[in-house]
Amino acid sequence: MAVAAPPLPAAPPSSLETAAARLALLLTRGGSDLAEASGRGDLEFEAVVGLRPLPPRPAPADAWAVDGGQALVADGRCVQLVVTRAARVRFRSGRCVLEDEGELRAAVLGPAEAAVARSALQLPGLASDCAVDVNLLRDRWEWDAVERCLFEAEPGAIVLVDGDLQPDWRIPSTFLASLLERAGERGVVLVGVTKHSSLSRGGAPLLGQLEVEAAELFGDRARWWAPLARTRPDVGYGLQVVAARLDPDARFAFRVDLPGDVDPEPVLGALAALCDDAGFPGYPYPLAVADRLAACPRWLRQEVRMQLEEHFHRAGVPPQVRERAFADRHDLMERS
Fold it and tell me: In this structure, which CATH number among 3.30.2170, 3.30.450, 3.90.550, 2.30.30 belongs to the domain 60-294?
């Protein structure tokens, strides 16, 4: 009689199987603790998230939107040339009356260039030893564009910002505090809309969970909002963070940042009236226009690179010196 061979030991799970199992657990188990992946710690979160219906309101008569773009033009690793710009858009009574793609600003980044880059930011209170990267450059000039919108906006206007209302951590908190104060004095409301939020609950993306809960509570085509957090009292400025679904046809809800002293529901209701475009349901259309204007596509980067080459030629920089400094060796090796 033949003896059956013992079963072979099961192969250990692959790293992908282990990672997938962990993600599946995070996405399905729920949780209670709210957090932000950045770990900045500026926010105090609600103990319980309460979903609320969002009644519609008329659109603001004056609506502005600001978004920024950036591109890496030349990369020598230890030194880089980048460009940034901040676009502004204005809608009055539902009609676009301003499309300003913004000044294209070039900057040299690198350890030896930090002092020059900091000086070019023209930002009082900036730490004298802080590092300067493209994120700080872009953020600085986006907020400069926001400031110009505030001065030109009519009372009762909304100024929309792509992303949250918390500037880069290197920008002094007094800058935003002053901006919020001036906006309040002029009767203008700053609103930040984040397309892809890092807020979480129980380690999993928060907004996806709220979208499911809101559909069960209000139905599939409901507008809704929920308070999520406020800035700590010692931060230096007051903000509140909410989640909101702004159109019945919207696939997604968004994180929305507001000044801490405004009533969220009327502002969100007015914001929802700007979010009914068929191509971008649920997202403020003025911001979609600003995003298009601010983008720095490949053709723009190539155009700036050709201008840079002309400057190098006039300055007498030999072609082989330029190539050795800025050639992408990875790209060259992958093509060979």
Answer: 3.30.2170
The CA distance from 134 to 221, in Å, is 40
| pLDDT tens-place string over residues 271-295 | 999 998 888 899 999 999 999 999 9
How far from the centroid of its chain's Cα atoms is residue 289's Cα? Answer: 15
In whole angstroms, give the CA distance from residue 141 to residue 132.
13
Q: Compute the distance between CA of residue 1 and CA of residue 117 in angstroms, rounded to an integer.
A: 84
Radius of gyration of the chain measured on its C-alpha atoms: 24
For residue 95, what are its two tokens?
Answer: 């009609």
Q: Is the pTM of this model over 0.85?
A: yes
- Closest CA relative to residue 64, chosen from 189, 203, 158: 158
Q: How far apart are CA 259 and CA 240, in angstroms?
A: 6
Position with higher pLDDT, 325 vs 84: 84
Residue type, 53: P
What lies within 8 Å, CB to CB, of 44 at 6+ separation is 229, 230, 231, 232
Q: What is the pLDDT of residues 57-112, one digit of tens each?
A: 999 999 999 999 999 999 998 999 999 999 999 999 999 999 999 999 999 999 99
Q: How far apart are the first and last CA of the chain?
A: 62
Residues of the chain within CATH 3.30.2170 domain(s) are 60-294
**H helical segments located in 153-278:** 173-186, 206-218, 264-272
